[in-house]
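Here is a typical sample entry:
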Amino acid sequence: MIRYVAGCLAVGVLFSAPRAMGEDVPDALTVEWQGQHPCEKLYEDAQIRALRCTLPPGAVHVRHSHPGNLVYTVSGGKAKVQDDKGTREGQPKTGGFSNNPPNPWHEVANIGDTTLSFLVIEKKYEPPPK
């Protein structure tokens, strides 16, 4: 469960414009919350995109999509994830790692009192389902 939530958080992350629930879902870099972008691009080429995603306490990485991705938890804490499977809480651990399939949409909220930080490597060659 922790691995899944960490992956979702990080996955968060990533990219394409698939359809979920009849709406266009933006990629992780496009969305903002309270005028801030939770993720910043660190690197990109034809195959991958590397992101650093940071969520201070109370922050939300609003609904977004990801291609397949690898996520490393730089700084863990407590999070709530919502996706097509429902809503669940988890505690991604600092130093945790996950390899995640493409994700058509999810939303991640930091419900703890520490800043969550993830390094996300998106596999552009594994796009999210449409």
Notes: The radius of gyration is 13 Å. The domain at 2-123 is CATH 2.60.120.10 (Jelly Rolls). The helical segments are 2-10.
